[in-house]
Write a structure and sequence with these properties.
Structural class: alpha+beta
Strand order of the largest sheet: 5-4-6-3-1-13
Shape: globular
Number of strands: 13
Distance between the termini: 9 Å
Oligomer: single chain
Number of helices: 11
Strand content: 15-25%
Order of helices and strands: HEEEEEHEHHHEEEHHHHHEEHEE
Helix content: 40-55%
Largest sheet: 6 strands, mixed
Bound molecules: alpha-D-galactopyranose
């Protein structure tokens, strides 16, 4: 988290709303997932961590029932208005559909705001990078509502409400991972989360002579309306079949051996591939967390690579740009592991790279990407940060 952005949101607040008396400032992080992709909505495990980049806000309740939103990233849109008396989505909502959705979801749970809100946000997550800018905005909004309106919710509730609003207000049928990582983040730790029970533990990420490098394809990914919801439906179809033959409730209940035993009950080869990814990826995640605990980082890296291959071939959510980044990374000596992260179809890869190899990594992968894709990728050395806070 970077305190200088507090000045940024306060300045914008003053410009748009006249003064900054009684204004409070907040931050909620984005996330990167180390392993366990497309397992969250399959009752499996994920292993994400919150980042030190995210979304900042300045907020103050109003005397009337208006909602006035302004984004310092999208200055051209100006102040976008709504009202507490009508949460119906509007054509001009733009990014405000996320905070509005969270306010609507709180109201659905009986937590109704009696006064409106002036809200200014500024985010430093690269736009469309798949590092969960929307989840960070949802968690941020929930955190602000709790603080300013006194609603009794835990951070875990903020994740659940954020996911609910995204599913039911924004039409994106996402799992719980992104909101959970943002709401429950802990500096220098990844979150080992069982998405079926929401039981979780923190795992220290001590990389010593290595770093986490996120590489952006700079290809915008758009999850709403994309193949994401189709993948969920295919997994649901597989779950139904395996529930009847193997007595499971979710794909996360299956070992790889049991999957092989029962898989032929799924006659559609595409649906079978999707299920194979969900099952193997969940078990890979369990293995990876064990490897990390034992200090077997090389093993962890191999599992990251295998995760990418499975997302590419079985789940088919990668794309040329992500494949080029992963393949080129695998060639560089000193790269422990590299894979696409998040929903896919664009966005970023995450790699664990030895510090001494970072310059070589950037140069080699950067040049090969430019040559094969035609434009530049961007590298970020990221740090693992805490969940939401008042700043
Ligand atoms: C997106 C969704 C998450 C999760 C990932 C894939 O980020 O929001 O819930 O399903 O894709 O692991």
């Amino acid at each position: 988290m970077d305190r200088s952005f507090k000045e940024e949101v306060l300045k914008a607040f003053k410009e748009k709303f006249g003064d900054i008396e009684d204004v409070k400032c907040y931050f909620a992080p984005g996330r990167v997932n180390l392993i366990g992709e497309h397992t969250d909505y399959n009752g499996g495990h994920v292993f994400p961590c919150a980042l030190t980049i995210g979304t900042y806000a300045a907020a103050r309740p109003r005397k009337d029932r208006k909602l006035c939103f302004y984004s310092a990233n999208m200055t051209k849109s100006g102040v976008i208005e709504s009202s507490l008396d009508d949460f119906r989505p509007l054509k001009d909502d733009s990014w405000t559909a996320y905070p509005k959705g969270v306010m609507w979801a709180f109201a659905e749970r009986g937590m109704k705001m009696e006064q409106g809100l002036d809200l200014v946000i500024y985010g430093n997550i690269p736009n469309g990078s798949g590092l969960s800018s929307s989840a960070s905005l949802e968690v941020l909004t929930g955190f602000i509502l709790r603080d300013l309106y006194g609603f009794a919710v835990t951070n875990q509730d903020l994740a659940i409400i954020g996911q609910y609003s995204e599913n039911h207000y924004n039409g994106m049928n996402c799992g719980i991972m992104d909101q959970f990582a943002s709401a429950m983040g802990k500096a220098d730790n990844a979150i080992f989360l069982d998405c079926a029970s929401l039981n979780y533990t923190y795992a220290p990420i001590v990389l010593d002579d290595m770093s986490l490098v996120v590489t952006n394809t700079n290809k915008k990914h758009k999850l709403v309306g994309s193949a994401y919801n189709d993948r969920r439906n295919e997994c649901d179809a597989a779950t139904k079949i395996l529930a009847s033959v193997a007595g499971i409730q979710t794909l996360g209940d299956l070992s790889n051996e049991d999957f092989e035993k029962y898989k032929d009950a799924i006659t559609d080869p595409v649906v079978q591939k999707r299920a194979r990814h969900a099952v193997y990826e969940n078990n890979r995640t369990l293995e990876a967390v064990e490897a990390l605990k034992d200090g077997r980082i090389e093993e962890f890296g191999k599992l990251m690579n295998a995760s990418h291959v499975s997302l590419r071939d079985d789940f088919e959510v990668s794309c040329k740009e992500l494949d080029v980044l992963a393949e080129e990374a695998w060639k560089v000596p000193g790269v422990i592991g590299s894979r696409m992260t998040g929903g896919g179809f664009g966005g970023c890869t995450v790699s664990i790279v030895k510090n001494e190899a970072i310059d070589r990594f950037k140069q080699q992968v950067g040049e090969a990407y430019k040559a094969r894709v035609g434009y530049d990728c961007t590298f970020y050395i990221v740090s693992i940060g805490d969940g939401p806070s008042e700043i």
